[in-house]
Amino acid sequence: MTTGFPSRPDPDALLAEVQQQEVRQRRGKLKIFFGMAAGVGKTYAMLEEARKRAAEGLNVLVGYAEPHIRPDTEALLLGMEILPYKLVEYRNATLKEFDVDAALARKPSLVLVDELAHSNAPGMRHAKRWQDISDLLDAGINVYSTLNVQHIESVNDIVERITGVRVRETLPDAVLEQADEVELVDIAPEELLERFREGRIYRPEQAERAAKHFFTKGNLIALREMALRTTAQRVDAQMLEARREAGVRTTWPASERVLVCIGPSPMSVRLIRSAKRLAAGLKAGWVAAYVETPSSTRLTDIDRKRIDVNLRMAEELGAQTITLSGQSIADEVVAYARAHNVTKIVIGKPLRPRWREVLFGSAVDDVIRRSGEIDIYVIRGDADEPTSGPSQPPVQRRHDWAGFASAAAVMAVASLAGWPLHHWFGLANANVLMLYLLGVLWIATHHSRAAAVVGSVLGVVAFDLLFVPPYYQFAVDDRQYIVTFLVMLLTALVISALTARVRAQGDAARQRERRTSALFALSRELASLRTTDEIASAAVRHISKLLGDRTVLLLPEADRRLAVKADSAGTGVFDIKESGVTQWVFEHEQIAGKDTATLPASAGLYVPMRASRGTIGVVGVLPSDDLRSDLASDRRQLIEAFAAQTATALERAALADEARQAWERVEAEFLRNTLLSGVSHELRTPLAAITGAATALVETHAKLDGPSQRQMLDTVIGEADRMDRLITNLLDMTRLEAGGLVMKREWQPVQEVIGSSLRQLDRRLLGRQVTTDVETDLPLAPIDSVGIEQVLVNLIDNAIEYTPAGSPIRVTANAIEGGIAIEVADSGPGLPIGTETRVFDKFFRAHAVDAPRGIGLGLAIARGIVEAHGGRISAANRPEGGAVFRFTIPIVGTPPVVDASQ
Question: Which segments constitute the Histidine kinase domain (predicted)?
């Protein structure tokens, strides 16, 4: 609800304004030289303005200026202090970037930084140049910069549709909105194209290519209009801000703006058309407003439909539509007009009789009295003017028979209570009168206004008959009672009217609270959901619960055909005809279906879910009762609000998925590069040793003695074993990740597996002291002997690789509760702090710099095999030095009993 300028300033708003002013005073000023395209002269205008500031004694620094080899622009740089570029090497090229750190250290009064939307090279402080400029502003440094309209994020898709070129470098609209000053640099498209042909903007070959694609006359005209509109919108926003800061409550007619008031009356159609013609003649924007008051709760379905039709008609004619809420139509209309600088209000002449206007007031008269300097156009429409909506049967008003009966009963009770008080106890008539007024109050709070009026009349009649002499007659002896009757009737009517108004206000407040609570509940739940399925299901559930109708949510598949993603009915079955309607809504991004001007024969109302990147789906509401027809007005607005919230949540989920996929691609690329680098190194090293030893044996066989030949052969065998272990690890890791490594578990003694693994590493363990400490009575364990042997080989080989030559290795095995624990301990440098868990990750090496061998798969494979057995593996540093790797093998069940007699 828009309330306009309050009569009394909000203390919180004043405090926030003071705080913002303090921030603005400390922050530097940003001036943007804004244009439609490259070559209009933004950099030239910026440098010219900067030279004027320097001539005035201001400390000016050229942080970054892009002259594009234009002599006129380069001439303006002569004599100015220029900050050296920061050179960045990227993809075999040297890039020149703005050095924000040097500018902050230099701290001049004014810094010139060209190309505000520029993307910085990797490795710079920020990804975008506008973020560098934000740092300068936070430091209190004033900045001049340049910007083209196609680099604004909100118009990026429009520029692409017009020019066919996707602009990659964009910045948030907030950067432009928060600029302290924006200067439009503009020239005619013909003059800009002439500059292109003369080679004054780009080199001839670049200019020719640009003129054929982006810089065509039609494109430049469209871009120029966008730049002018953007600047005009900013100026309009600045004017509203200036009025607000100055506390101005009058309208500043700097530009025309038309507001038309519409309602359920058929004459609203003529008002809308008149407002459209008035706005077109003034070349002004216009707004169609409907005001919800407490009396709106009594509108019939036909009235609500007519309001909805009128609002849609205004939208089709180019108006901005808005629904206001308040107690008074005049107050809300005038407040909105003043807050939005409306200069002309179009309103319809009243059709009610004059006496009703005198008694109950006129919204038209109230608007005219309150409008002040705003022009009011009062237009008469034909009462029987048809609307564009569907024809409806006349409304059959229902009488509140229950209320009338209650009124008679309450007045009878009041009479029975007052009779003994007055006739037996001598209570005055004035006191008895209070009983009747209390009864009228009760009727008004529980029944309709008509029932309260009937109760008021019955109360006056009963009071006259029972308590005013002569009794049981309508005649009165004392004429003063006539005044009493009139005052009593008037008081009862006022009480009933006020009570009815309070009830209506309460009903309206409950409806607003219900809508607000529903939206809040949906937004709170959507904030905690992550997947598209969860978001779609939650949205459908909330809409269906609130409206009581079947709700469906449809999202596009790969071929952009919509499919039901969530259905409150749980069937997922959708009529082919309705599917065609939803596809039309998705493709045209417009509301269609039941009770609309487009495809009204549909069974449901379908609303597009619009996000920042376009329409991403459709929400449909299908009334459960064929005779029901209340999808108009406030219900439709509620559906649109739900659709907007759901679209935002779905887009957030999609962006999160894209970010996750991008991260996975980066991670996969990193792993691939790591794997290729490691494998190529690990294969090349032993292959080179094998090739060298074999070549020496072939070429110098006769000259080598026995020990030398043996050494050469040992080298060949050892390096071949090393290659075999590498390939085995790669294959094992592939099978582990693919789930193809099957553990063939049998009951076996762990002692034999430990001994077999040590025998495999005989050559690698030469010169080392290996100590084994295995309990003699270890139970049998259900293990895959080959897999556990591979675990031990990898752990022992890891100890050999990362410990000094000749250092001891200790292997222990002992029984624990529920299984067997095996440890491999060394006396090396130990694990770096914080890597005790990461050492089991793929391709991770705790001492990557000092250990040229291995690619970091051995421990990852060991963890996979141990976990496949249901065990756990861990690593830690020993108090006396070195590292210890410990894994457990659970024992489940008992080994089979072997019959010794067989």
Answer: 678-893
